[in-house]
Amino acid sequence: MKILVVGANGQIGKHLVKLIQENENLEAKAMIRKEEQASYFKDLGAEVAIVDLEDEIEEIAKAAEGVDAIVFTAGSGPKTGKDKTLMIDLDGAVKTIEAAKKANVKRYVMVSSFDTSREAIQSAPEAFAPYVVAKHYADDWLRNTNLDYTIVHPGGLTNDPGKNQVQLAEKVERGQVPREDVARVIVAALENDSTIGKAFQVVEGNTSVEDAIKSV
């Protein structure tokens, strides 16, 4: 299975491409914004596509040609303003979904925010609310397609080494989770068709990623 990782140069994205390249059944195509970001991925043996999420849908669709799945791990980051949140976390996600349709890619995994419900929007701190809004509508757009989607809602992200141990369900208590383990969850979801049409929250826990995914 060949997987286009959108936002590959992000922290989850880098873990994900590495894990995919270590899996004999999978291969990664890293979608990044700048040529100078490419060496990390080329050293892993991954194919690279230089595309900006603010480009046209057709450019993203070209990057998606010939792949079997798309994973959206991109994010505007905590230091950008509401404008970039709108352009990347909402419009970038929607354009990638539309690009998947154009490229006839059915499998799509979205890395979302822990809680994108209407209640979460209303209760979010002012600075965080635009991000939750963007993720809410991107998730909703994806659910209303015919794509074979999975939506991953990770808890508070850390750079701790992954333990391959998580708690994963439609609803879990809010907590933290290493980015490396989120990447492991994405790989396991791609390899398990029972996750199609599902959305789940994930935090650190005591169940192996493989077993946790099987329980979805």
Structure description:
With 216 residues, this protein is an alpha/beta fold. It has helices at 11-22, 38-43, 57-64, 82-102, 118-123, 129-143, 179-190, 209-214, and strands at residues 2-6, 27-32, 47-50, 69-72, 107-111, 148-154, 156-158, 165-169, 176-178, 198-204, 207-208. It has one domain (2-214): NAD(P)-binding Rossmann-like Domain (Rossmann fold, 3-Layer(aba) Sandwich), CATH 3.40.50.720. It is 40% helix and 24% strand. The two termini are 21 Å apart. The model has no long low-confidence stretch (mean pLDDT 95).
What topology does this entry show?
Blueprint: E1 2-6, H1 11-22, E2 27-32, H2 38-43, E3 47-50, H3 57-64, E4 69-72, H4 82-102, E5 107-111, H5 118-123, H6 129-143, E6 148-154, E7 156-158, E8 165-169, E9 176-178, H7 179-190, E10 198-204, E11 207-208, H8 209-214
Parallel strand pairs: 1-2, 1-4, 2-3, 4-5, 5-6, 6-10, 7-9
Antiparallel strand pairs: 8-10, 8-11
Helix pairs in contact: 1-7, 3-4, 4-6
List keywords for this structure.
two-stranded parallel sheet; alpha/beta; 216 residues; 24% strand; single chain; globular; Rossmann fold; nine-stranded mixed sheet; 40% helix; 8 helices
Largest sheet: 9 strands, mixed
Order of helices and strands, N to C?
EHEHEHEHEHHEEEEHEEH
Termini separation (Å)?
21 Å
Shape: globular
What does the average pLDDT come to? 95
Number of helices: 8
What's the total number of strands?
Answer: 11
Into which percent range does the helicity of residues fall? 25-40%
CATH class: Alpha Beta
Oligomer: single chain
The computed structural class is: alpha/beta
Protein name: Nucleoside-diphosphate-sugar epimerase
Pfam families: NAD_binding_10
Domain NAD(P)-binding: 7-192
Organism: Gracilibacillus kekensis
